[in-house]
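Memo to structure team: turn this sequence into structure tokens by end of day. - J.P.
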Amino acid sequence: MSKYCKLGMASLLLASSVASAYQPAQGWYAGLMAGVSYAPSTSFNIPDPFVLAFPEFTSIPANLSYNTLANGGVQLGYRCDKFRIEGELNYNSNSYNRLRIGYFTIGSSNNVQGLNLSGRTNMFSGFINGYFDMYDEENLDVTWVPYVGLGVGYARLQSTVDFYIHNTQLNFLTMKNSTNAPIGQAILGINYFFSDRMSVGTDLRYMSTRTIRGLDSRFTLGTWNFLFNYSFDN
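Reply from structure team:
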């Protein structure tokens, strides 16, 4: 085989390899996110009902723990080389597991005798996220792309608590509260590219609000998410 034929075949193989290689498409993209949401227990103080009789005590320590539930969201972003900036809308919901007031514990099941509770905290949040994608631009075949990110935004938290005794709701003890607070998040994840434009991925996110007035505590969340992104720019 002549050297020209060998050179021609090598060029065809190289061209074929480059044609099938994946490089994250630059420009605008949009996506969906869904996952599980874990909220660590929150400690706070409540007014002591016996404060009038015992003025030396003003509050009682309380602790509220949550069940692991779900979260979801949508995102719209812009990719420029290894950097991305993104707007994200997110929803988290976490139901209550138990409430501990001093040495007294109230469980969450309303199918047992005695005093128990039912309720949840829902959080609606919006973020501006910045990402750095860790891949080698000189590697023509980019498939797995780890990334890190930070986000800042604003959140609205809505909490509802209902109390039951012997499976009967105590309507006069129903409590509802809504509050707004700045929020931030840290992100660590990895994407898998099926093509230049389409990817799926998974990441871990840690979210925390500013200290919430009235509770003197932050509301924090840890989430594990699965994502789908599609680029609609060339």
